[in-house]
Structures are given as C-alpha cells and as structure tokens.
TrEMBL record:
Entries under Pfam families matching the protein: ABATE, zf-CGNR
UniProt source species: candidate division GN15 bacterium
InterPro entries per the UniProt record, alphabetical: ABATE (IPR010852), ABATE_dom_sf (IPR023286), Znf_CGNR (IPR021005)
SUPFAM superfamilies in the cross-refs: Jann2411-like
Name this protein carries in UniProt: Zinc finger CGNR domain-containing protein
Record-annotated Zinc finger CGNR domain positions: 144-187
Amino acid sequence: MLNRDLLKTGSKPAPGELALVQAVINTLDLEDEKDDLACPELLRLWLIRFGLLEDSDSVSESDWALMMEVREALRQALMANHGDAIGDVALVKLNRLVSQFQMAVEFRRDGRAELVPRSSGIAGAAGRLMAIVAQSVMDGSWGRLKICSSSTCRWAFYDSSKNQSGRWCSMSVCGSRLKAREYRKRRLQKTR
Ligand SMILES: [Zn+2]
C-alpha cells in the first residue's frame, strides 16, 4: 500500500497513484533550491520507499540522470494542463524518453486490463510512472494535475475546483503573491 503521508504532495494532493507522479515532481523544490533526489543514493532510497524499486536494485549515475530527465519531462508535460500545448522540442524529447520504457497490457482476474512496465530497475520505475500517467489520462484525472503558475514555484498540485481553473499550488502563498505583484504593476502604470 502506498504510504501517502510521506509523499510530498502539498495541500492539494492528487488521488490514488497519481500522487506518486505529483510527488516525484515535487521532490525538487525550486523556491528553496532543495532537491530530495540530489544524488543516486537518495533517488534509490526514495524509489524503494514508495515501492518503485526493489531493495536489491542499485542506481547508477546514468540511471539517476535518466530519472532527472523523466522528472523534468513530466513537469513540462503538465504545463500543457493549463491549456498551453507542449513545445515541439519538449514533445520530441518526451516521446523519445517514453519509448525507452517497455510496457505491456496485462489482464486482471476481474477482467480489467492494466498497463504495466516490462523492465526492472530504473526503467521499470520510470515505466511505472508513465503507466500511471497513461491510466490517469484515460480516467480524466491527468488534466487536473497542474504546475503552479508562479515561475519561481512550479510545484505540482491537483486542481479539484469545479471548473478546473486553478492556477496556483496555494492561493494564499503563490496566488496572493502574484496578485500583489500584478496590483503593483497596474498601480505603477497608472502613475506614469
Ligand atoms: Zn506555487
């Protein structure tokens, strides 16, 4: 069972396993310049803790670099959930990245089918994250996972508002900060 208490999802957590994808993105705190996955060993421990890697698996420098690419690609992909299309370069990069992870459709006893990673190790962990993404695209929850509009924050949050118009990880922190900045800008323009 996924221990959601330990996942860094913030005050707006995504439902089910999508919280894992959200938490991976939020391991990098851009504002405080703190990275929970700053080295291969930290990444290994993180992945083991959330069941994405076996205790016996190791993480090399290149495994680590691959996962860092996955994390940024996911952040880029989520930016599209505000309505902006993914840029051409980012899209090619993302699809090239995903093509490295072998996936298969597997049936369950109850007749449901699931997308599962075929590889083990880091490719398996990344594949599992991508499978969660694919599943959430199908059930509609993906569109609600967004990146905070504050350019210094970029935190992943789940938008559960009725009209899906949320823009900030926290209205009281990033939202009000941005509003204050816009207000100052408007006031400045008026006095000119
Ligand atoms: Zn924010």
